[in-house]
Design the sequence.
């Protein structure tokens, strides 16, 4: 592997707008690279792969949780917000990683999980040890139960991972957990909780972290009356800013306080909200006096379809203009079926659950048939479309290898709580979290010197970095070339649809720099406009753009 020099354009100090059109690479640390051979990816592993990230050409890394955790939810159950999991590394290694990334011209965004801690967090342990009504319990959401002896939960709510959302403790009280029981929800009306998270933001900002990805950003503020609604009633309540738990208007008071902390730094620290809210309510999370940017999962939920893509892009560019933020694009992350696989399954229209391909995964990959080849072909076309759009692109580790979801994980090897709590009906998210293949063969395909913590399938070797490194037609080469060109061609945050070409199954747009992108979503080849062809997601056929292919051109 050749080591590319750090891109000259990324001067790390001073540029407050660096995030607006950044390409951000998500690392799921336990599955990226394992330096000490214990089967779990670690910070040393990340440090050793920084040359790889440089050569890939990403502007920033988003690091999923690396905090001490029992891994009841892959690290989204945090024991201590200001430390590194000893299974992953040390604070000194974290500092070393930040310095090495910055030297390579790559910024770092870390994941903050403020909706809930883990049940091993010292505050939750203190809450368990303290009596009902104590200040220790007030940091979480404790309630007496119903029924004669409080033996029934305060409400019949179900958690997002399935199963009840209330769990009883030894003295008979119950606590709320919107996710797993190991993830008690914080009480954000408690001033100590608010204070403590601001300290956490400073702690990492002082260590040189450039920004934060805010987990479940729409869930923090809650307003729970004495008499709680039933789950059925909850489901019926409008999401207009006053729902008892989700997307409440007062959540933005928290982010206004955080903004003050972000602005203590130069350049200000950035934040991106993971907020699964109605599209028109995203702008508030993305506003400059709040978190500043919000994920938009619309393309991730769409079929590979010209009309859907166009509508989503136009809508989100308008939305970004309203908030003054830049928009974000995502096709894959650690929570969803990889897009190479989704696009190889039949389109499912509005049925989002099914469209995630979960039933295919449950059946071990046989039904409905996965067309892996067309899936990858479309994924490459979609990615090239995405990387030409204004705004920032969030990429998930392994998508640059064109990796497919791993379907063949035995039940006893699975780790995701959704699998266990559904139980077994939702296959969960392990299939996109399998440790990366770095080499064609050898122990854990070069991930580490021992077995990987999630089993890797046979076919991983053929998708490995080693197998793709020197192959100009590989997906890895496509990503490298695209990310490098993107730096050259990126201009202000506008695009113009090229109406004459954007008909039927074809979408074409240009950026002010003269950068033209044409995507053929259909089955038949189409003509390209005049211009110098810079890059294509699949070879042209007699100078024409084949099915499921994107081309980048410089306008003639
Ligand atoms: C977010 C994370 C997901 C996690 C959940 C609970 O949705 O992306 O992985 O399970 O929050 O923290
Ligand atoms: Ca390790």
Sequence:
């Amino acid at each position: 592997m050749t080591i590319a020099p750090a891109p000259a354009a990324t001067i790390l100090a001073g540029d407050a707008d660096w995030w607006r059109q950044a390409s951000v690479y998500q690392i799921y640390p336990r599955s990226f690279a394992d330096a000490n051979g214990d089967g779990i990816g670690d910070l040393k592993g990340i440090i050793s792969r920084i040359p790889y990230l440089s050569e890939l050409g990403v502007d920033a890394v988003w690091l999923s949780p690396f905090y001490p955790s029992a891994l009841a939810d892959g690290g989204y159950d945090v024991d201590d917000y200001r430390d590194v999991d000893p299974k992953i590394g040390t604070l000194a290694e974290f500092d070393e990683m930040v310095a090495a990334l910055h030297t390579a011209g790559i910024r770092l965004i870390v994941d903050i999980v403020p909706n809930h801690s883990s049940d091993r967090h010292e505050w939750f342990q203190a809450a368990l040890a303290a009596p009902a009504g104590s200040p220790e319990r007030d940091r979480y959401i404790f309630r007496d139960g119903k029924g004669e002896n409080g033996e029934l939960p305060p409400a019949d709510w179900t958690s997002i991972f399935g199963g009840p959302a209330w769990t009883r403790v030894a003295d008979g009280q119950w606590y709320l957990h919107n996710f797993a029981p190991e993830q008690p929800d914080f009480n954000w009306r408690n001033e100590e909780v608010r204070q403590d998270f601001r300290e956490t933001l400073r702690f990492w900002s002082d260590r040189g972290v450039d920004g934060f990805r805010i987990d479940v950003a729409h869930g923090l503020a809650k307003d729970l009356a004495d008499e709680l609604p039933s789950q059925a009633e909850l489901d019926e309540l409008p999401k207009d800013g006053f729902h008892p738990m989700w997307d409440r208007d007062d959540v933005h008071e928290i982010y206004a306080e955080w903004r003050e902390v972000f602005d203590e730094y130069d350049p200000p620290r950035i934040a991106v909200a993971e907020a699964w809210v109605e599209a028109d309510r995203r702008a508030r999370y993305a506003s400059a006096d709040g978190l500043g940017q919000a994920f938009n999962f619309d393309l991730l939920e769409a079929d590979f379809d010209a009309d859907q893509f166009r509508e989503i892009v136009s809508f989100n560019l308008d939305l970004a203009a309203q908030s003054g933020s830049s928009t974000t694009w995502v096709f894959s992350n650690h929570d969803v079926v990889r897009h190479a696989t989704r696009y190889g399954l039949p389109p499912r229209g509005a049925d989002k659950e099914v469209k995630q391909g979960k039933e295919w995964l449950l059946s071990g990959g046989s039904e409905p048939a996965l067309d892996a080849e067309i899936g990858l072909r479309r994924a490459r076309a979609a990615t090239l479309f995405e990387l030409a759009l204004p705004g920032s692109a969030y990429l998930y580790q392994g998508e640059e290898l064109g990796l497919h979801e791993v379907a063949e994980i035995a039940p006893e090897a699975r780790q995701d709580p959704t699998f266990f709590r559904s139980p077994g009906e939702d296959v969960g998210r392990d299939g996109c979290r399998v440790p990366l293949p770095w080499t064609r063969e050898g122990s854990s395909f070069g991930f580490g010197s021992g077995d990987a913590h999630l089993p890797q399938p046979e076919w991983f070797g053929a998708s490995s970095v080693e197998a793709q490194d020197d192959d100009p037609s590989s997906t890895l080469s496509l990503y490298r070339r695209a990310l490098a060109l993107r730096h050259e061609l990126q201009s202000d945050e506008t695009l113009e649809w090229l109406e004459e070409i954007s008909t039927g199954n074809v979408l074409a747009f240009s950026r002010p720099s003269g950068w033209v992108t044409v995507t053929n979503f259909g089955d038949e080849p189409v003509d390209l406009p005049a211009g110098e062809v810079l890059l294509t997601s699949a070879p042209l056929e007699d100078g024409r753009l084949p099915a499921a292919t994107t081309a980048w051109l410089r306008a003639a």
Q: What stands out?
A: The first strand starts at residue 23 and ends at 27. Residues 73, 76, 113, 179, 215-216, 274, 334-335 surround alpha-D-glucopyranose (ligand 1) (CB under 6 Å). The longest helix spans residues 306-323. The two ends are 35 Å apart (CA to CA).
